[in-house]
Amino acid sequence: MVGGGNSKSDISFAGLYASSAFAACFAEVCTIPLDTAKVRLQLQKQVIVGDAVTLPKYKGMLGTVATIAREEGLAALWKGIVPGLHRQCLNGGLRIALYDPVKNFYVGADHVGDVPLYKKILAGFTTGAIAISVANPTDLVKVRLQAEGKLQPGMPRRYSGSLNAYSTIVRQEGVGALWTGIGPNIARNGIINAAELASYDQVKQTILKIPGFTDNVVTHLLAGLGAGFFAVCVGSPVDVVKSRMMGDSSYKSTLDCFVKTLKNDGPFAFYKGFIPNFGRLGSWNVIMFLTLEQAKKFVKGLESA
């Protein structure tokens, strides 16, 4: 993905998809401990005992990471990595690889000059919604595995692994249950994807117009950080609703989850886990975009050889 006008990709769609999936998977492996911390913080609810409110178990990003590592072991921080990689192969590959083709479709074949920002946003939302519609089952399994904390002695785990989770959900809840939370997930993924890809595209385009800046690692780093920050600011409320719906089947609908969260935990609950979410998405975007740009160059070299 390049910042600028109505650009045509200089590598095949298959090459772009492979580059996107690889970059997304690499970023996932590097940052999933922060994602696990984010999910635990988002699922944490206030517990009222009599007239007192119990202190939360998890406090802050580093505190949550430390608590999980101490109580459950370091490996617990990578819970959900297998479905997480499944998700990135599908969702990451599709949403990123489709962005330029969809953006060019929206501006038209005869467009000359910079692509308007609103069409970049529209293209990002469209590809994000399409991709997660395919990948929702992988996201559901990832969240459920991450949400499972330390169990009491003798209590069996809900799922023994990712493949067991898929089969158990289908057997006990039906195939349709794999698309639990699809509403908020489409909203979340569409919004965050639009924020990430459109802002990366726009920031990169702006930086490249500044004298002395070129299409290099520094530009990719700055654009990636901007994309991550903007995505978290915009997407945190729907991300919290998505995580709660996927981790707790007691909610009847997206609206029910939103209303109960607002009523029981207050408006700031929608920004629970904001710091770990930014730490996760900010670092994820930097790693992903840096890897993507290098992977595209590698694939371009293979295809032109």
What keyword list fits this structure?
globular; 305 residues; single chain; transmembrane; Mito_Metabolite_Transporter
Describe the structure.
The structure is a single chain. This protein has 305 residues and is mainly alpha-helical. 70% of the residues lie in helices and 1% in strands. The chain has a two-stranded antiparallel ribbon. A hairpin with a 2-residue loop joins strand 1 and strand 2. The longest helix has 31 residues. The chain starts with 12 loop residues before the first helix and ends with a helix. It is found in: Mitochondrion inner membrane. It comes from Flemingia macrophylla. One of its GO terms (cellular component) is mitochondrial inner membrane. This is Uncoupling protein.
List the helices and strands and how they pair.
Elements lengths: L12 H31 L4 E2 L2 E2 L7 H12 L8 H17 L1 H9 L9 H31 L14 H12 L8 H27 L8 H31 L6 H12 L8 H31 L1
Helix pairs in contact: 1-2, 1-3, 1-10, 3-5, 4-5, 5-7, 7-8, 8-9, 8-10
